[in-house]
Design goal:
The complex is a heterodimer. Chain A has twelve helices and one strand, in the order E-H-H-H-H-H-H-H-H-H-H-H-H. By secondary structure, chain A is an all-alpha fold. The radius of gyration of chain A is 21 Å and the shape is globular. Helix content of chain B is about 20%, strand content about 25%. The mean pLDDT of chain B is about 90. The chains are: A mainly alpha, B alpha+beta.
């Protein structure tokens, strides 16, 4: 009989507790990135479909959040850096193999697009807004005329941004919980869902809320499907991946994951949205806020739990 | 040229001289280290066996840390040695997350630091500090492409293993068992 008595690993007081190198900044960065991707994608799609009139909050008001979300997100990424004064080197190198690298570039493209998009609507919010310079008026007129053409790259970039928030984690082979290709689509759908929730919160039009609520329901269903898929994939995988799945199936993250993410973040809002659809009067704010909180907690859990998983040797 | 290290787990006594030598040679700040010794005990009494391993960066051929570095600070030097250029590193932590061997740490000055195979000594034809001080001479350093080197000889004649080969990193530290 072979039984392991004990394993004493290493214990280096200044390194081992800090190998857990990513803290609260990264989940917030991923959450804001996903939220921005969701809002911009829906805004772009409804612009392409020519529904600016019916979907005011989706196309006009919600995108105002995006530049702030992206800038705060980049700020979080900056806070995460340990060698801060050298951060500019992110933008003097192009390394396609590094998700951190191309993600920073995607954000660099996305942030100006979102600012331009919102700026072109700013005079609808503040009719007395003065652009001060002649060329800014010309530029605004050009943007307004070509919104539908801008919407195409915006939709594509939004999808890339949403997937990137997952790939940033899934590219790490050393952390078995992250190392699954489904994490990209999963974070994208979760981002779409939080984006839709944000639009619901900002919309005053009943029809629009109903439509986006239905879309949100679809996103939640796909997200649940992906989560089940992810865990199935882990359980069918190697020992390190089985251990990773067990963090959620009886391990230390079981309660936060099932209570806050699955139950309060996905199932309860889905039930409330279904009730709303069949005709019960529901304060739509509740499922929207639950979805937003669920998305945030999901990212916290994934980032925290992933850093515990490791190779065994 | 492909530098590699072979460490004899049958000869290692776990004295941690390699750790101290590295800290001294490379001015590693107090409380940190670039190499360390692990002890694994297997079995039930009276059939127990112990394995001591001096671990460090594996200078992998397929290095996830080099791949994920957004600025190119982590790179390959001649002989496949993986190095970090300190003033290119932004301290994002991606390489620390990507390493299955947990060989990297965040230096108090901000950049990421790790074993360099003592490249400054190797370029002068000397052995890395850890190898040169080992009191039981259980460590072998050399070039895998040189058929006459001691390391190739010892790997030919002994059974060996690498750590977590399933991670696909193609590590270059071998443990003689």
């Amino acid at each position: 009989m072979k039984e392991e008595l004990f394993v004493s690993g290493r214990n280096i007081p200044n390194i081992d507790p800090y190998l857990h190198i990513w803290h609260w900044q990264i989940p917030i960065y991923l959450f804001l990135g996903g939220l921005a991707a969701g809002i911009l994608f829906l805004a772009a799609v409804y612009t392409i479909l020519g529904k600016e009139k019916e979907m005011q909050a989706t196309v006009k008001w919600a995108p105002f959040i995006v530049p702030f979300a992206l800038i705060i997100g980049l700020g979080m990424l900056f806070l995460d850096l340990k060698h801060k004064l050298y951060f500019w080197q992110l933008y003097t190198t192009i390394r396609l193999q590094s998700p951190m690298g191309w993600g920073a570039w995607v954000l660099m493209v996305m942030t100006p697009i979102s600012i331009i998009w919102s700026a072109s609507y700013i005079r609808e919010v503040f009719p007395n807004w003065d652009w001060k310079f002649r060329f800014l008026y010309t530029f605004e007129a050009w943007v307004i005329k070509n919104r539908r053409f801008i919407a195409w790259p915006m939709a594509i970039y939004a999808v890339i941004l949403g997937i990137y928030t997952g790939i940033l984690l899934s590219a790490f082979n050393a952390r078995p919980l992250w190392n699954t290709t489904i994490l990209g689509p999963l974070f994208l759908v979760s981002g779409m869902s939080t984006g839709a929730a944000c639009i619901i919160l900002m919309s005053k039009n009943h029809e629009e809320r109903r439509l986006i609520g239905r879309l949100d329901l679809l996103f939640i269903a796909v997200e649940l499907f992906f989560i089940v898929h992810m865990i199935m994939g882990f359980l069918a995988g190697s020992q390190v991946q089985i251990d990773a799945a067990n963090l959620f199936l009886g391990g230390q993250f079981t309660v936060p994951f099932f209570v806050f993410v699955i139950l309060l973040g996905l199932l309860l809002p889905a039930v409330l949205e279904v009730l709303e659809l069949i005709g019960y009067k529901m304060p739509i704010v509740i499922p929207a806020i639950l979805v937003l909180l669920g998305g945030l907690i999901f990212r916290f859990i994934m980032v925290e739990a992933g850093q515990i998983t490791r190779y065994l040797y | 040229m492909r530098y590699a290290m072979a460490i004899d787990t049958k000869k290692c006594v776990g004295c941690s001289d390699c750790v101290v030598a590295c800290q001294t040679e490379n001015n590693v700040p107090i409380g940190f280290c670039r190499d360390w010794v692990t002890e694994t005990v297997d079995g039930t009494y009276p059939n127990v066996s112990i394995e001591l391993r001096s671990e460090r960066c594996n200078h992998c051929d397929n290095s996830p840390c080099v791949r994920c570095c957004p600025t190119g600070a982590s790179h390959f030097e001649d002989g496949g040695i993986v190095l970090v250029t300190h003033n290119k590193c932004i301290g994002c932590g991606a390489c620390i997350e990507s390493c299955p061997y947990e060989a990297r740490y965040s230096h108090p000055d901000g950049y990421v630091d790790k074993c360099t195979f003592c490249i400054h000594r190797v370029r002068k034809g000397e052995n890395p500090a850890c190898v040169s001080v080992c009191p039981t001479s259980c460590m072998y350093f050399g070039d895998l492409d040189d058929p006459n080197s001691e390391i190739v000889n010892v790997l030919k004649n002994r059974k060996f293993k690498a750590l977590a080969p399933e991670a696909g990193t193609k590590p270059n530290i071998f443990y003689l068992t």
